[in-house]
Specification:
With 117 residues, the protein is an all-alpha fold. It is built from nine helices and no strands. The chain has a domain of 73 residues: Orthogonal Bundle (Protocatechuate 4,5-dioxygenase, Chain A). Helix 2 packs across helix 7 and helix 8 crosses helix 9.
Length: 117
């Protein structure tokens, strides 16, 4: 039996030591996006930039799909992934919509409804 805390939350990827090791290259690449020159280099040549950081195929496929949930499953840490999402003008509501399987408009409507409940 797994004794790690929070492992039984359906649909949740626990970012633990194993995920940190798995996502090291991905998170390192996303951290590089703190610098504008690196964001520009990524946009100019995504494939070359991913190779430069040694992303595996699962991570590269998730980057190509712009799928933050896939990136989290591939070892991505949400704080680093926010740097990646920002390149494409995605915000936390876009990510929340992905997490819930809703469109952004539907997700925003859900947030407004909860505000008035």
């Amino acid at each position: 039996m797994d004794s790690r805390p929070h492992t039984g939350i359906p649909g949740t990827t626990l970012f633990d030591g194993e995920q940190a090791r798995k996502g090291y290259a991905l998170n390192r690449m996303c951290f590089s996006f703190n610098e504008e020159a690196n964001r520009q280099a990524f946009v100019a040549d995504e494939e070359g930039y991913m190779r430069r950081y040694g992303l595996n195929e699962e991570q590269a496929d998730a980057i190509r799909a712009r799928d933050v949930l896939q990136l989290m499953a591939a070892g991505g840490n949400v704080y680093y992934l926010a740097k990646f999402a920002g390149i494409f003008k995605l915000d936390m509501q876009d990510i929340g919509a992905q997490q819930t399987g809703l469109t952004k408009d539907q997700f925003q409507a859900r947030l407004r409804a909860a505000d008035h409940a």
